[in-house]
Write a structure and sequence with these properties.
about 150 residues; mainly alpha; Methane Monooxygenase Hydroxylase, Chain G, domain 1; FlgN family protein; bacterial flagellum biogenesis; FlgN-like_sf
Length: about 150
């Protein structure tokens, strides 16, 4: 049964590495002038990989239960303490997840900065400029009462 757990950890590690690669592509897209075309396939792939990771985590928890360990991090720590191969793969997985988490956090900050910039640009475009006599409004009509 530990071989099945080890196989799940290897697959989980590969999936986290793939996820980190997609996050790197997302970083490039978010720093591009116009990321609109690049982001939809990235988001689609991220969503797919998150589903795979959820399935693998559930499989890992079931395998831990079959081995008599609790689910989650504490169970993995216990399982790792009883098998050097599991411990090595668990360490690799944790390091990969930490790298992915850092890139994801950085991407979140890039998104926040871009959204802030867009909000300020919209606010600058929406400045109320006093209308002058004879100028038409946004509806294409000359207002009957003009503010000066």
């Amino acid at each position: 049964m530990k071989d099945a757990l080890l196989a799940t950890l290897v697959e989980e590690y590969s999936t986290v590495e793939a996820f980190a690669s997609i996050l790197t592509l997302e970083t490039r897209a978010l720093t591009a002038v116009s990321p609109v075309e690049q982001l939809p396939p990235i988001i689609e792939k991220k969503t797919e990989l998150i589903g795979v990771l959820a399935r693998l985590e559930a499989a890992r928890d079931a395998q831990l239960a079959e081995l008599g360990f609790p689910a989650g991090w504490s169970g993995m720590e216990l399982a790792a303490s009883t098998d050097a191969r599991v411990a090595a793969q668990w360490t690799l997985l944790q390091k990969a997840a930490d790298r992915a988490r850092r890139v994801n956090t950085s991407n979140g900050e890039l998104i926040r900065v871009r959204m802030d910039y867009n909000q300020r640009a919209l606010a600058a475009l929406q400045v109320n400029v006093p209308r002058k006599a004879g100028f038409y409004g946004p509806d294409g009509r000359v207002p009957s009462q003009v503010e000066l």
